[in-house]
Amino acid sequence: MTTLLLINAGSSSLKWQLMQLPEAQPLAHGQVERLNLPDSIVKVVVDGVKTKLTVPQLDEVGAINDVLHRLVAMAIIPSLSAIDAVGHRVVAGGTVFQQAIRLTDDRLLALQELSELAPLHNPLEVRCIELLMASLPGVPQYAVFDSAYFHDLPEETAIYGIPYDWSRDFQIRRYGEHGISHRYLAQQAALELGRPLDTLNLITLHLGSGASITAVKQGRPIDTSMGLTPVTGLLMGTRSGNVDPSLVPYLMKRLNLATPEEVIMRLNTESGLLGVSGISSDMRDLHEAAATNARAALALEMFITQVVKLVGAYYVELGGADALIFAGGIGEKDELIRQAVIDRLAVLGIRLDRELNVAGEAGRLSAADSAAEVLLLPTNEELAMAREIQEVITSELDLV
């Protein structure tokens, strides 16, 4: 048996899960929400018993230390030496990493060199890996890549309208992100619908502080909203989503910035829901403020509109969809966003059962006469990661 600690470090939260392999049996899980915001929220679930508390603001390093402390303090494990392996979600693997790997010093260096593809994520994830390597010396560490799911996107959606030689020579393409989640959601949708995955056309919506939408045709991804980097696509918590590239030199002049990287960082960290609202990157805060704050209401409206535009485009691109799947912190927990999105898709004949939507239980939310099923399927990136890591461990044992 292998006791595996899984770390899923995102832009606004850090999720973790302790599992036993090879069965992927969960032992405990938790989450640190509102990273780098006042009043971070720590959640731990052990044997179905939930603990929730508010702590002073935590960054990703503080969150990792908090997780390690609580694993022992809450007697989930007798000591940190009980952890046999650690798995990490890594956003950008580029063309270098196309499947899960065991981390070495050389591979960690390669991850650092891919930071331009995910400036908010890869550096953060490398820091988490380094911290856990130091805290758990000698414990093998593994990486599972979000971008791997989209490695085989068709060229017509994978590359940009730039000289083809640039795409080929500089490996410029749509890498996509949240692939671990989108793959899992497609697989779970097939189980929920009782149909083989390769017979289904699906639109998977991973909506959280980071948000992306993917079109899945006959079980394979054919298009996705994030591009070369995760700043593109939808308006997100602090990320701008799609903007005119001419905005970069324009803002360099207007804001008196010395480098394009300074603009890109602001598009990643000061934009999106936070930038438009001027209040918060957290959708819960915006709902609370929207009745009296026009900019908070505008941020909500922009988010909903962009989701609808992408779903509509993918619906046509797929030639119709069997199901729309909501997941992620917003997709799973925000019935108002789900209702607003589906109401605007009524022109396609897609409808929610309002009572099911308000109840927010996993499963079907669509009305009986809906042209496509609407599913709420809580994503489980950690389970998907565990399965990929087990494959790597098994292959390592086969080589011994």
Automatic annotation (TrEMBL):
Binding of Mg(2+): at which residues?
N8, E381
Q: What are the entry keywords? A: ATP-binding, Cytoplasm, Kinase, Magnesium, Metal-binding, Nucleotide-binding, Transferase
Compartments it resides in:
Cytoplasm
GO terms of molecular function: acetate kinase activity; ATP binding; magnesium ion binding
- Identify the pathway: Metabolic intermediate biosynthesis; acetyl-CoA biosynthesis; acetyl-CoA from acetate: step 1/2
Q: From its record, what is one biological process in GO terms?
A: acetyl-CoA biosynthetic process
Q: Quaternary structure per UniProt? A: Homodimer.
Name recorded for this polypeptide: Acetate kinase
Specify the taxonomic lineage: Bacteria, Bacillati, Bacillota, Bacilli, Lactobacillales
| Name of the encoding gene | ackA
